[in-house]
Specification:
The chain is mainly α. Helices cover 83% and strands 1% of the residues. Strands 1-2 form a two-stranded antiparallel ribbon. A hairpin with a 2-residue loop joins strand 1 and strand 2. Helix 4 runs antiparallel to helix 7. The chain starts with a helix and ends with a helix.
């Protein structure tokens, strides 16, 4: 392709990725807000919020991942200019969101016994259970919000996601303050209060996205002009693409979250330090993740336009951009690790351990970014089955056993939290290499692309 065409493609990808990047950072900012405000309330509250997140987000992403089939499906239909089919896809996506939201809510409200089984610190576990009980009330709203957001994203209108996420973050801060610390006669609830605020935010986001998708620019899809009953054939097609995406995300997040649960037996200070390090890593992980999401949209659109092999240019731009961003992030962590940790806690033991753990992030952030963007690119091709198998192998066959063996000292003296972080690095590194190889294979194979996108 000509240089100008490459530049134009970069601009298109950047215009999609910019708002998504801001949205992801704002979304992550809500988790950071919970961690910072609960951390200043107390180390036990921070540990409780961390433990809650270690269960809530993998469960939510398992179900929400099924909805991610909507984005490449809608983007390909948008490339084909098949707008009525977009409308029907959205209506079926809302049914899927309702089912997923109710299942996720029931799961999280029944998950308390897991903490006792894993011998988690009881005070932190109690805070975590209460946090999940409150925050789960907003999950059905969040699932419907996400299905409607896929309509906007899939039609290359990504700014609403950014505006909604930033607005929600700005509201989350005062809500957290009110429910965590209390104001006037209202007594604060510590870390549990963050869960109360989270439920309100989820319903608030749903209200905002409804305002967006009822605008004129979406009228061509007719998504709200008629009612559609659940269509088993269409739902099955979405689930064939979406369930592997959900399983892939769950495999990755599940490793990180299960590691947090396993660290619970080492005490609240270790969990708090681990959570701080993971939060900082998560903030720097959001831009590469957004690039992967933008590549999903752009590649889906190009395939819908019939540009099967030219979509490879988008994939290469996305991968190059994500590696550059990750290198900058790793350098920042190496130089500012103590200053970043100081934003979260004033407790010396927690801060010292968190700063040490951040040095692991310096080494594996590059791999974490690469695997995330590669997975997003492959979703644009609707290639989800093989990436799911790669994720299960990398995180649960390689990452978790390595972490447990080193952390608990199965063959060597126990390295405790450091051993588990080596396991995380092994899992992420394996996924990055294997997903990159898969992307190289798929993006060059026209027949395979056609087979995947039928």
């Amino acid at each position: 392709m000509a240089e100008l065409t490459r530049y134009q493609e970069f601009k298109r990808l950047a215009l999609l990725a910019g708002p998504l990047m801001t949205a992801q950072l704002a979304q992550m900012g809500m988790g950071v807000t919970d961690a910072v405000m609960a951390g200043h309330y107390g180390a036990v509250d921070l540990a409780g919020v961390a433990l809650a997140g270690s269960l809530m987000w993998p469960v939510m992403m398992l179900f929400m991942g099924c909805l991610q089939a909507l984005t490449p499906t809608i983007s390909q239909l948008n490339g084909e200019q098949n707008y009525p089919e977009i409308g029907e896809t959205v209506r079926q996506g809302i049914w899927l969101a309702l089912i997923a939201g109710l299942l996720a809510m029931i799961t999280l409200r029944s998950i308390g016994p897991v903490y006792a089984l894993l011998d988690v610190d009881p005070p932190a576990a109690a805070i975590s259970v209460a946090y999940l009980d409150y925050s789960s009330l907003g999950i059905p709203a969040l699932m419907i919000f996400f299905s409607l957001r896929c309509l906007a994203d899939g039609m290359s209108f990504t700014r609403p996601a950014m505006i909604i996420a930033v607005t929600a973050l700005l509201l989350k801060i005062p809500l957290n303050y009110f429910f965590i610390y209390g104001v006037g006669d209202f007594e604060g609830h510590g870390g549990v209060g963050a869960g109360m605020a989270q439920a309100i935010i989820m319903w608030f986001q749903l209200g905002l996205i409804i305002i967006v998708v009822t605008r004129k620019r979406f009228n061509s899809t007719g998504w709200r002009t008629r009612w559609s009953a659940p269509d088993s054939a269409r739902l099955s097609k979405l689930l064939r693409i979406g369930m592997p995406i959900g399983a892939t995300i769950f495999a990755e997040m599940g490793l990180f979250s299960f590691t947090t649960l396993l660290l619970g037996r080492f005490g609240s200070e270790v969990v708090a330090a681990h959570n701080i390090s993971m939060n900082i890593n998560g903030v720097l992980f959001m831009p590469p993740m957004a690039l992967g999401m933008a590549a999903t949209i752009r590649i889906g659109y190009r395939i819908g336009q019939g540009e099967l092999l030219d979509a490879r240019e988008t994939a290469l731009i996305a991968m190059g951009g994500t590696l550059l961003i990750a290198l900058i992030g790793a350098a920042m962590i190496f130089v500012l690790n103590h200053q970043l940790v100081a934003l979260y806690t004033t407790e010396t033991a927690v801060a010292t351990l968190a700063a040490e753990l951040l040095l692991f992030v310096v080494f594996f952030l590059l791999f974490d970014a690469a695997q995330s963007t590669a997975a997003g690119v492959l979703r644009g091709y609707k290639d989800t089955q093989i990436p799911m198998r790669i994720a299960l192998l990398s995180y649960w066959v390689i990452g978790l056993p390595v972490g447990c063996a080193l952390g608990y000292g199965w063959f060597f003296p126990p390295m405790e939290v450091y051993g588990f972080w080596i396991g995380l690095a092994a899992g992420v590194g394996s996924a990055a290499i294997l997903l990159s190889l898969r992307l190289h294979h798929v993006s060059r194979n026209k027949e395979l692309i056609l087979a995947l996108t039928r």
